[in-house]
Amino acid sequence: MRLVVVGGVAGGMSAAARARRLDESAEIIVLERGEHVSFANCGLPYFVGGEITEESKLLVQTPQSLAAALNLDVRVNHDVVALDAAAKTVTVVTLDGADTLSYDALVLSPGAAAVRPPIPGLDSPRVRTLRTVGDAKALRDAVLGGATRAVVLGAGFIGIEAAEALALRGLQTTLVELAPHVLPPLETEMAALASDELTRIGIDVRQGVGAQSLTVGADHDTVNLADGAQIDADIIVLSVGVRPDTAVFETAGVRCERGAMVVDEHGRTNLPDVYAVGDAVVSTDGVTGVRRPVALAGPANRGGRLVADAIFTPKTARPMPAPIGTAIVRIGDLTAAMTGANRASLDAAAISYHTVHLHPGQHAGYFPGAATIHLMVHFREGDGLLLGAQAVGPDGVDKRIDVLATAIRGGLTVADLIDLDLAYAPPYGSAKDPVNMAGMAGENVLNGTLSLWYAEDLEDVSAGRLVLDVRSAGEYASGHVPGALNVPHTAVRDHLDEIRGAAAGRPVAVMCAAGVRSYLAHRILVAEGFDSSMLSGGMQTLRAMLGARAEAVLV
Predict the structure, then answer these.
(1) Which helix (H) or strand (E) element contains residue 393?
(2) Looking at the chain, which terminus has fewer C-beta neighbours within 10 angstroms, N or C?
(3) pLDDT grade, residue 60 (50/70/90)?
(4) Which helix (H) or strand (E) holds 500?
(5) Mean pLDDT of all residues in 126-148
(6) Are strands 327-331 and 334-340 parallel, antiparallel or unpaired?
(7) Mean pLDDT across the stretch 198-221?
(8) Distance from C-alpha of 539 to C-alpha of 515, rounded to nearest angstrom
(9) Which of 347, 372, 400, 416 is nearest to 187 (CA)?
């Protein structure tokens, strides 16, 4: 058996390594067009920023180490330019010319290439991407060579990490994002927290605007934005997205959807004995069922292993699980993470859902260092099936999102979160963990104990209901919804007649700072016959949703 793997790094190398562990006699050849076959691409921004100081730390394996440990024939600087499925051969171009290589089974793991939009001037030598070790070295050398101003185009995960790295190096850094907010997969109220933190660490954030052109100069370039702004830059990092790098294989007959290779549950393409894995493959979203590529290292690594199983142990090979898109990023002193679907994808898939917002501490409030986690959870109407979650905070975010990702994978409902037996000691959590609390809030919504209104509906709510602010008088004075009646939650029972008179037959929309006090007030009002609901997440969520408009909307 000769197995040929096209592309190393995550998917390809995982397939090759697993194949060797399953079959000691197989001839396994890995063809990598670049200089490095196994490197930590997720670590590249931290190398640029100086937190990873040695290039060697990025090199997970080398052709020599892979040959010694796994008897793999790894060939770098080998670019596959053609596939003949009938002859079962690939054409490879090397520094010495072209060659043809036969295979019994072929695994395609070409990855994705950086998107280059049609922006005049983008071919400037000051424009760089951050996809390979070579990219990272070149960017670091430019930084160390005296660059003082940087513009990052695109505020996705890599763009955020690149901007942070450049700011950490002391560069005057501007981050430009065409979408309405940074990290577009984040919900608006979560992205506002990320944007504020980027600003705090010195990054100039431009949201909702794109680059129209670059003016290339002798000693620097100028980025011209659609709103008329001009930003001078010594370095421009292009990070506006990626596309599957599949043109060669689509030409050879591999069936693709919007440029990504179509595979079955075991990674098989439509061509005999040709498999595919990684960023260049169509995946079916585990929550919404939408078909799209998923450019994440975890699914690629696990997919490579399962493809090798399908080739060498087909009778026992497990099918590939549908990814749910769990991702995390550091932003200054904050962490932002997500799993499953967001509002936009749920709306697009016509899935009816509820959302709860919470702002609990990451550990017991009486233990030193307690900090807030901003957490939101989506769950399906009716049965409460978990659909997605996002969190932002300085500590404990990764733990909660990983728990919720596991719960989504396991098909749990929001009420099931109440019963999760999670580790607790004051330095690590609370007896009622934020995940448990999300379950309690969600169950209350499903059984009618709790009725919610949302920050995005403020205008309609203000027009048709009495907004009852149950914070303290001091909190109310620091900023409140115009026309809101202020009755502290401990005084609600004594002011029911006043509230009834102010409502004048209208429903009551209760709010507080984070949602705890308003829930208590809501239950009092319901018991007294009021048509009541409470603001999910309270003023903290409302301010984040309003963003820069908060000072103009609140009084």
Answers:
(1) strand 386-393
(2) C
(3) confident
(4) helix 496-503
(5) 93
(6) antiparallel
(7) 96
(8) 8
(9) 347
CATH architecture of 452-553: 3-Layer(aba) Sandwich (3.40)
Q: Dihedral angle at the C-alpha atoms of 403, 405, 411, 417, nearest 10 degrees?
A: 30
SS3 323: coil
Span 333-353, pLDDT tens digits: 999 999 999 999 999 999 999
- Judged by DSSP in three states, 161 sits in helix
Give the phi and the psi of residue 540 in degrees, each rounded to 5. -60, -45
Token output for 193: 């927290």
Q: Rounded to an integer, what distance in angstroms lies between the CA atom of residue 506 and that of residue 530? A: 9
Residues β-bridged to residue 242: 114
Q: Phi first, then psi: give them for residue 430, nearest 5 degrees.
A: -130, 165
Instruction: Kindly give the pairing relationship between strand 38-39 and strand 59-61.
Output: antiparallel
DSSP 8-state assignment for residue 128: E
Written as six digits, the tokens of 363 are: 């550990």
**If residue 392 lies in a helix (H) or strand (E), which one and from where to where?**
strand 386-393
Burial status of residue 448 (CB atoms within 10 A of its CB: 0-12, 13-18, 19 or more)? exposed
Q: Does the structural domain 127-240 have CATH classification 2.40.240.50?
A: no
Q: Taking a C-beta distance cutoff of 8 angstroms, is the pair 326, 298 a contact?
A: yes
Q: Which residues pair with 507 in a beta bridge?
A: none
Q: For the whole model, what pTM was predicted?
A: 0.94
Catalytic residue among 42, 82, 297, 349: 42
In this structure, what token pair is assigned to residue 170? 């002391």
Percent of the chain with pLDDT over 70: 100
| Fold match, 333-447 / 452-553 | no
DSSP letter string, 58-80: GEEE-HHHHHHHH--EEEES-EE
Residue 512: active-site member: no
Cβ contact 110:196 at 8 Å = no
User: Is the Cβ–Cβ distance between 357 and 515 less than 8 Å?
Assistant: yes
Give 315's pLDDT tier (boundaries 50, 70, 90).
very high
Kindly report the CATH class assigned to 2-111+243-312.
Answer: alpha beta
Model pLDDT, residue 452: 98
**Residue 38 confidence (pLDDT) above 90:** no
Beta bridge partners of 150: 173, 235
Q: What is the pLDDT of residue 9?
A: 84
> Each residue of 135-168: b (16+ CB within 10 Å) or e?
bbebbbebbeeebebbbbbbbbbbbbbbbbbbbb
- Rounded Cα distance between 550 and 193, Å, is 13
pLDDT at position 8, please?
87
Instruction: Break the chain into its structural domains and give their ranges.
Output: 2-111+243-312, 127-240, 333-447, 452-553
